[in-house]
Design a protein that fits this description.
The chain is about 40% helix and about 15% strand. It is α/β, with parallel strands linked by helices. The protein has three domains: about 5-65, Orthogonal Bundle (434 Repressor (Amino-terminal Domain)), CATH 1.10.260; about 70-170 and about 290-315, Response regulator (Rossmann fold), CATH 3.40.50; about 170-285 and about 320-330, Response regulator (Rossmann fold), CATH 3.40.50.2300. The longest helix is centred in the first third of the chain and has 15 residues, at about 85-95.
């Protein structure tokens, strides 16, 4: 038999060289070795043939034969230049890759029209399922379209909960409340919040509600610059995320404000870079990779028809005390 070059190597040739049946070789390539209990030694022989010959499966042929593309459409609402999203995506990718699926990633940049266009593009490419972190506007959103897509192909939301769809996220209410409780326990009577007050990112609303119920004066500001104009009125401030906290650290230093002597500060998300800040910030740990993994696992269950029910996974954030929040009585 004429030796085939790697360019022309077929799956049948891989099976022959490995000394296995075509069916066995196919099951291995499709990630079903464990399901069908193919021996480890057999898998190693097939893999060795693949490596020795630089064999690349014909994706289109596999898609036709299995009625699957092994592609997952992943749509984010924000840019990937933040470690928060990278951590979430790592969880998703690690989970779906176990079943030989690969992500096709797009970003809507908070534009509803671009979000819909991206979803329609993914539809045209025949993705087998969707992971979507949608734009969370009260009125201008694509929720109905997402539900329509989910009627045809599995779809799971990332970092949010939408009625009628499976999804995984952190408990925003619990995250905001735990910061308020920390400030209250430290004796702070006048505090501030910097960030949006929205239903979908309700940590700010929860923080303010908890403070008000305890008789603590609380006010919200849309940005750090606006807050700093009134910073002398407050003994503590909750930043909506660690990026905002880092901005405050920098600008406070420029203004001569000392943390926590002049101002107690807490952030949110427990991102990796906070350990580089001094004093070490108090923040709230949110589950990122774990949320992504829960989304990926649920999507695989839907694709494999193992658990067709709508499921919501809610992770509870917790406070990570640092050195940026002092007792109110110790100030000045």
């Amino acid at each position: 038999m004429k030796k085939r070059t790697p360019k022309h190597l077929r799956l049948q040739d891989v099976a022959t060289l490995a000394g296995v049946s075509l069916t066995t070789a196919s099951m291995y390539l499709n990630g079903k070795a464990r399901k069908y209990k193919i021996a480890k030694a057999t898998c190693e022989r097939i893999e060795q043939v693949i490596q020795d010959n630089n064999f690349v499966p014909n994706v289109h042929a596999r898609a036709i034969a299995n009625k699957k593309t092994y592609l997952i459409g992943v749509l984010l609402s924000e840019s990937l230049n933040k470690s928060f999203w990278i951590d979430l995506l790592t969880g998703v990718e690690e989970e779906i890759s176990q079943s030989n699926y690969h992500p096709v990633i797009s970003v809507s940049h908070r534009d509803p029209a671009r979000e819909r266009e991206a979803l329609e593009f993914m539809q045209s490419k025949g993705v087998d399922g969707y992971v979507v972190a949608p734009i969370l506007n009260e009125d201008d959103n694509n929720f109905p379209f997402l539900r329509k897509i989910a009627e045809d192909k599995p779809l799971v939301t990332l970092n949010c909960q939408i009625q009628g769809l499976s999804g995984a996220s952190n408990d925003e209410d619990a995250g905001g409340a735990v910061v308020a409780e920390h400030f209250i326990a430290k004796g702070h009577k006048a505090v501030a919040y910097v960030g949006p007050l929205r239903r979908w990112t309700s940590r700010g609303i929860s923080f303010m509600d908890t403070c008000k119920k305890a008789g603590v004066t609380v006010k919200s500001f849309s940005c750090i610059d606006l807050f700093l104009k009134h910073a002398d009125k407050y003994s503590a401030v909750f930043c909506c995320n660690d990026y905002v906290l880092a901005e405050l650290y920098g600008k406070a230093a420029t203004l001569g404000l000392k943390i926590p002597k002049d101002l107690s500060v807490a952030g949110y998300d427990d991102l990796d870079f906070v350990k580089l800040l001094a004093p070490r910030p108090t923040t709230v740990h949110t589950y990122k990779k774990e949320v992504g993994a829960a989304v990926g696992k649920k999507l695989m269950e839907l694709i494999n028809a193992q658990n067709p029910c709508v499921s919501s996974y809610l992770f509870t954030p917790y406070l990570v005390p640092g050195a940026s929040v002092a007792d109110a009585v110790s100030k000045g």
